[in-house]
């Protein structure tokens, strides 16, 4: 295979080849370092970029080309800190500026759909923080557009990448729990203070927090057939750093029941009114946040699904649970962008799947529809499952 492609030809070639492409021709066989790196531009230089940028800057197969933020001083600060050669104050200037292959979208969630569409139209692949759009229909249109243009789009979270997720998935598939019946997951804290967008229309605890649990449970138990939910606003007014006192418009408390078919039910609770002694970062969290029950065993994920460190599995009436999967490997929650960058090079499909992200988005949308109507809502979407073969 020729290795003299221009970068744009290289990316297009891999897009067409998909899983048939191989990584080895693009590696220096002595150092195992990529001869070609994926050029990455990051839009959104707020708090979450403080996790993404150091991770991206250390990836051998990533070249950080540009950063962009509508607050130019934030882009300037991150460009200086991480030695990024280009900085821009607007997506129009970013897309017209230094060439790049993958856009990493870390902006406010309400802007994701609009910005992702603009980037796809400009010929860019995308890794988007959650959610990848504000509605399922908008997200499906983005995926269709990407396919039409031989591009790729993926959406956070990356919870399916953890060794703990893999262990739990295989345990279920191997029948170690017997017949799976039910599951519960929770994630909450007292709410972010640094930005109003979490509480404005299009924000909420479901796309910010519940999204992790929804991705994990659907990834473990299979696509959701229908949803019933209740959501509420507990704290009507909040004080945030960027706008002062605001009226809360999006749910800050949610309970979602999901039917996965074959009698399997699961439940997610999430909210911005939960006192958590482990704090927003979950440091020291040693209790299960996800539990799955079957006819012959039960299993619990220790720690949060975005930062897990073990799985407790019980199959005995007389012996205590045993802990498995205590090695976190290379998994960190912010690795999605580097994983998909490597996928663009190798052509090997990652466990992260755009259809799964869209399915989770439809669950969130259906939960809100259930609250409004008081009815059970059927879903139309699905995704390739099981995630871990």
Helix-residue proportion: 25-40%
What's the arrangement of strands in the largest beta sheet? Answer: 16-15-14-13-7-12-11-8-17
Our measurement of the CA-to-CA distance between the termini, rounded to an integer number of angstroms, reads 30 Å
Largest sheet: 9 strands, mixed
| General form | globular
Could you list the spans in which at least 5 consecutive residues all have pLDDT below 50? 1-34
User: Which CATH architecture of the largest domain would you pick?
Assistant: 2-Layer Sandwich
- CATH-defined fold name of the largest domain: Dihydrodipicolinate Reductase, domain 2
User: CATH H level of the largest domain: which superfamily?
Assistant: Dihydrodipicolinate Reductase, domain 2
- Please give the radius of gyration in angstroms: 21 Å
Which structural class fits the helix and strand makeup? alpha/beta
CATH class of the largest domain: Alpha Beta
Number of folding domains? 2
The total of beta strands comes to 17
Please give the count of helices: 10
- Measured by DSSP, the beta-strand proportion falls in 15-25%
H/E element string? HEHEHEHEHEHEHEHEEEEEEEEEHHE
Mean pLDDT: 91
Quick overview of this protein structure:
This protein has 389 residues and is of the alpha/beta class. It contains ten helices and 17 strands.
Task: Using brief descriptors, characterize the structure shown.
single chain; 389 residues; alpha/beta; 2 domains; nine-stranded mixed sheet; globular
Describe the fold and architecture.
The chain is an alpha/beta fold. It is built from 10 helices and 17 strands. Strand 14 (298-304) and strand 15 form a beta hairpin. The chain has helices at residues 7-17, 49-57, 72-81, 91-96, 112-121, 136-148, 163-173, 205-221, 336-346, 354-373; strands spanning 38-43, 62-68, 86-88, 102-105, 125-128, 153-155, 180-188, 226-232, 237-240, 244-247, 253-261, 264-271, 288-294, 298-304, 307-314, 322-324, 377-378. Strands 16-15-14-13-7-12-11-8-17 form a 9-stranded mixed beta sheet. The longest helix has 20 residues, at 354-373. It has 2 domains: 37-155, Rossmann fold (3-Layer(aba) Sandwich); 159-332 and 350-378, Dihydrodipicolinate Reductase, domain 2, CATH 3.30.360.
